[in-house]
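step: validate -> pass
step: tokenize input -> pass
step: predict -> running
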Amino acid sequence: MLFAMEAAAQTAAATFVRIAESSSADTTIRIIITLDAPAADANVSITPLRYNKRFACSFTLDDGLVSAARVAFPFFNGGKVAPSFKDQWGFDQGADGAAHPGLFYTDGCGNPRPFTAAVAVNAHSVRKDSTPDAGNLSWGQLERMTSAGWDVLNHSFTHATGKDVKAAEEVDSNTSAVQRHLHTSMRQFVIPGGKDDVLSLPLYTAAAFEQGLQVVHSSRYRDYWIEPATCKDWDHLLAGRYFLHSNMKKDVFQEIAQRLETGRYYWLNTFTHSVGNDNLWNISFRFNDFSAFFNRLAAAYGKDGADNMWFAPPEAVHAYESLRRAVKPDISYSDNKLLITFDTNSLPAVEQHRALTFRVQGSAAIAEVSAENCTIESYGGKEKIINITW
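step: predict -> pass
step: emit ->
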């Protein structure tokens, strides 16, 4: 069977391989790995984090402020950031107006991947069209960002707080508006901060989970260093988050080093508000501080450093662990070939970020990979990994 499938599958001639789905009715993913020697001692596993990284890092910009699109997005992706400008409230949400090279890690096979983040939005404040002094994002800006792999998180419709908040209505209205404009379903909720937010926190948490969202984020929750493999309530996750801002005192880099020393796999969950030149409402990360922090992070743990960090939005990290837990692959061997199969029909309903990384341990190297019903994103590298999406 293995050799018959091999003949039918397309051969992976380059690092990136695109395999068309063979049939809409066929829900079984098949991955054929050809090694350069017999596969007798080969062992296949799903890596704890995507691209076989040692830790994941997420960064969310709350409140849908325009500096997310005009500064953070081009700074991470590579491009020209906005020059200094005053928004509708009189704050400078621009930056230095310069072209920046972007920040990258690799996919474990030598291919660069840009840092991608998330924005937590209140649809009531999202603009129909952008203007030069707009303080909030427009739907068009959000569409460009999500098309590039950024996520949108539910932050309530109006950012209401307090004991009288209509939490269920706030969550549902925001979900509906984002679905209508961006055609994407949000799976995570960010608790709005403000007056008496401690009173609205349990109301929002309950409403979000009741409506099927899987993660609720709040800086009032303790753990912003999350260990995915050991979390018991993964589909009702209370995620802490670390507030990155211009007045912070804590040394996050020391914490990263300490976590890496444990040999375990962690997810660092961070957020801020604006990243323009001004410290908007004194709850933001001025551009000089923002750029210095993330340049240092990339230099230490990105493509040109240890390259052991997966910098991805929260929904991508959560989806990966959900799939990693659910996929139970069948693995068969024949001479120098491995066949990995698993059925996607019984997996969690993940609409975005359907991806896994397999690692092949053993003395033989990977010669080529082909597949059915998935895309081989890349394969190889010193850790002998295979990155797939579907």
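step: describe -> The first strand starts at residue 28 and ends at 35.
step: cleanup -> pass
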